[in-house]
Design brief:
156 residues; alpha/beta; 4 helices; 38% helix; globular
């Protein structure tokens, strides 16, 4: 895979969002324990950025993030669904830690949004190489491959 050129779109101690204008990709790396206020600030910024830049591909890296509280999970689900249901987002790769509690947290956020269909497909990965390969392969093949992907409700 050729080198991916990314620009920092937003950076805080708890999250860094990078963007590739040519690929219409946003890559968010989440870190540590994030307060409710910080999480909400980041989610709102990320959603607005996705909409303003017509982002189509997203990589959310949760490998260093401590799972948020249930109240925050519900807030993320409600607000991202409302903001992103008419977005250009097509593919979302979730880079997951081996921690089962973190994986359950991310899947719980998706479950809270199950009544709203977002225009994108998501898949979980354990390596960034596999995640990027799927994003770009899916980008080149218009998502017509037969695989284990499913249409999902996307949350960072």
């Amino acid at each position: 895979m050729r080198k991916l050129e990314l620009k920092v779109a937003w950076k805080k101690d708890f999250a860094t969002m990078r963007y590739s204008p040519g690929k219409k990709l946003i890559w968010t790396e989440w870190r540590g324990a994030i307060s409710s206020e910080q999480l909400r600030e980041a989610i709102i910024y990320e959603c607005e950025f996705i909409l303003a830049n017509r982002v189509e591909l997203m990589l959310s890296d949760y490998t260093m993030m401590i799972p948020p509280a249930l109240e925050d999970q519900v807030w993320v689900a409600n607000h991202t669904t409302e903001l992103l249901q008419h977005s250009s987002l097509r593919l979302v790769a979730n880079l997951m830690a081996q921690d089962i509690f973190q994986q359950i947290t991310i899947h719980t956020i998706y479950a809270f949004t199950s009544d709203v269909l977002l225009p994108c497909e998501s898949r979980d990965f354990v390596t960034k190489e596999e995640a990027l390969e799927w994003l770009f392969l899916g980008d080149n093949s218009s998502n017509k491959q037969a695989d284990n992907s499913s249409t999902s409700h996307i949350k960072p």
